[in-house]
Amino acid sequence: MKPLLLNTVAALACAVVLPASVSAAGHVESFDPSFARLVAADAKIEKLTEGYTWSEGPLWYQGGVIFSDVPENVAYRWTEGMAKAEVFLKPSGLLKPTPGIREPGSNGWTVDREGRLLVCQHGERRVARYENGEFVVLADRYDGKRFNSPNDLVVHSDGSIYFTDPPYALEGIENSPLRELPFAGVYRLSLDGTVTLLSKSLAFPNGIAFSPDEKTLYIGVSEWNAARIVAYDVQPDGSLVNERVFFDAQPLASEKTPGSCDGLKVDRDGNLWSSGPGGILVINPAGKLIGRINTGVPTANCAWGDDGSVLYITANKALVRVKTLTKGAGW
């Protein structure tokens, strides 16, 4: 913790909270004038559906949002007008009871370049494609050893899949006897099925996203007392170099701003929208915090939806959204 920095940021937030932005789901905060170009002063955080144990991995898909309730092993789908999301997939992660699994459900969702659903099956400890009512296993091992519990994933324009593999699904987490790999990796799954280890230096790699030009890969790190976002340079062969701290979120952590760095997305101008202490942190490409979607609760992840300008957020037990003035990268 860095109390001086925390106090400085907190004071700035109090000074420039945007007017008329408080709702039942939280409020919007501005830390820099540039944030006004991304979120309107009267933007509301709208709660869409709630009552879940831990909502995660949202994805805009075919006119609605798919998201995971990881502890309950259920994926839900919400569309406009629903008071409660409908069950999309149950079980969504662990297909049969297995001792030693603490978080059995699906986690991160995305689509491949053909629009097919991809999912990190936390409980099954694998990356899979879901189509025609069945799971197709894409990767479940590295060097003959089972993954810990793939958490989140992103697809490169060449079709390769980058994903993180912390041990959160396992009882005992990093001390689980089920663990076969002695590290939490970041991997690349190529189109021919080859799994390449890109990094094993992060204890708890979590959310993952590319910059709009795909030259930088960002990873949210949910390490205890070291919440941060790291960045890598992406090489032509898909490998990663030059690991560095892009944003240190730990000074923001307090009892009033719970949560850690988890899922993240990037807008068309390269700004990061990352879960962190207090909700969704908005960080410009230079690594400066310029705003926050303050949900008031531990917040897992987010995704662009509708026309690409609406940010859907899995905030603890709920799904919420906020209208922005930008669009997600690729929209």
Summarize the structure.
The protein has one helix at 3-15; strands at residues 27-30, 45-50, 55-61, 64-69, 74-78, 86-89, 106-111, 117-121, 126-131, 134-139, 141-142, 145-146, 153-155, 161-165, 185-189, 195-199, 205-210, 216-221, 228-234, 240-248, 264-266, 272-276, 279-283, 289-294, 301-305, 310-315, 318-323.
Structure report:
Mean pLDDT is 92; it is low at 1-23. A hairpin with a 2-residue loop joins strand 11 and strand 12. The longest helix is centred in the first third of the chain and has 13 residues, at 3-15. The protein has a single domain, classed as TolB, C-terminal domain (Neuraminidase, 6 Propeller). The protein has 1 helix and 27 strands. It starts with a helix and ends in an 8-residue tail after the last strand. The strands form 7 sheets. A 5-stranded antiparallel β-sheet has the order 1-24-23-22-21, covered by helices on one side. Strands 2-27-26-25 form a 4-stranded antiparallel β-sheet, with no helix packed on it. It is mainly β and 331 residues long. The chain has one helix at residues 3-15, and strands at residues 27-30, 45-50, 55-61, 64-69, 74-78, 86-89, 106-111, 117-121, 126-131, 134-139, 141-142, 145-146, 153-155, 161-165, 185-189, 195-199, 205-210, 216-221, 228-234, 240-248, 264-266, 272-276, 279-283, 289-294, 301-305, 310-315, 318-323.
